[in-house]
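Sat 14:20. Reprocessing the chain from the morning session after the first attempt stalled halfway. Input below, unchanged.
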Amino acid sequence: MTALRLRQLVIATDHMEHADTLQRILALGAPYVDPGVRQFGLTNAVYAIGDQFLEFVIPTQADAPASRFIKRFGVGGYMAIFQVPDIAVARTRVDTFGYRRIWNADFPEIAASHIHPADLGGAIVSFDEPKPPESWKWGGPDWQKNSIEGRLTGAELTSPDPAQLATKWAGALGAEKISPTEFETQDGPIRCIDGAGEKLTAFSLSIDDRADTLNAASDEGCLMTEKGFKLAGVEFQLE
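Finished this time. Tokens:
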């Protein structure tokens, strides 16, 4: 089995109400507001689901990268954060491909790097090595207390050339492709499907109370889909 894990998915939005709405729909615990994201011109809200995380980032500066993203693409999927077993090996692999690392951090609790989204396409990819592996600095000190039952089971990207996008992401992350347009993580597949642009468009979640969640999403006025509901430019596909 692959050592790669999907630990966190991120939405960029200009409305904190989107985070509040998802909190009500999924009955999420209290969010963590990470002071560290101020360096990117952001505020945020991070919610724990099992030992994985959903994050909303909201620009506080007009020139913030997330602000430029929203102006270009609208609100939506912004980043996917993966856990790797060895950050040094992962960085060497990314450098060998010639992909640019636009941010690197080395804390006692975690080491991480971001890949330039123009090099891979679809979204910012972050690969992180937490220490110990079951920890997660970005979730805050109380994430276990605030976590709900459930898990992230995958994500979906669109691209005019989904096979090429899947190959680039899998190569950068050292992941095994399970089809021409999918690669594997311990938590579920990352799928690339045909679409007009390269975007991170859907998050897959496994939850116990699917029917109640769908009713809550409908009551909040979300657009309902065959697999779930849409909020802040992302389809939440419920299992």
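The chain is about 25% helix and 40% strand.
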